[in-house]
Amino acid sequence: MALGLGCSAKPGKAKENRTGSWRTFRPEFMHEKCTKCGMCTQVCPEGCIGEDDLGFPVPDYDYCKGCGLCVEECPSQAIEMKKEEK
To answer: Which domain holds residue 66?
Structure first.
């Protein structure tokens, strides 16, 4: 597929393009504070936060852009943004 003028990547959602590689900050989930309310999964614009077998949120960092919406909306403050280490 040819790219349009000025484009460096095929347009699409993170789920199609694995945009997590250019993230600067990433959300870190603290399960000891988590109430499993599911708010983080609802507000994630890329839909990349799932749940483990116990119902705790688990992000898929291949697709997480590090926007921080999950952190802002977490009522129990169980998520922190940490500097990405590569």
So the answer is: 38-86
Give a yes or no: residue 19 inside a domain: no
Domain count, the chain: 1
pLDDT at 22: 74
DSSP 18-40: -GGGG-SEEEEE-TTT-----HH
Average pLDDT (68-83) is: 96
Where does 1-86 show beta strands of DSSP type E? Answer: 25-29, 49-51, 57-59, 79-83
The answer to the question of residue 66 being in a domain is yes
- The CATH number covering residue 72 comes to 3.30.70.20
Write out the two tokens for 66. Answer: 């590090």
For 25-46, what is the mean pLDDT? 94
What digits encode the pLDDT tens for the residues 36-73?
A: 999 999 999 888 999 999 999 999 998 898 999 999 99
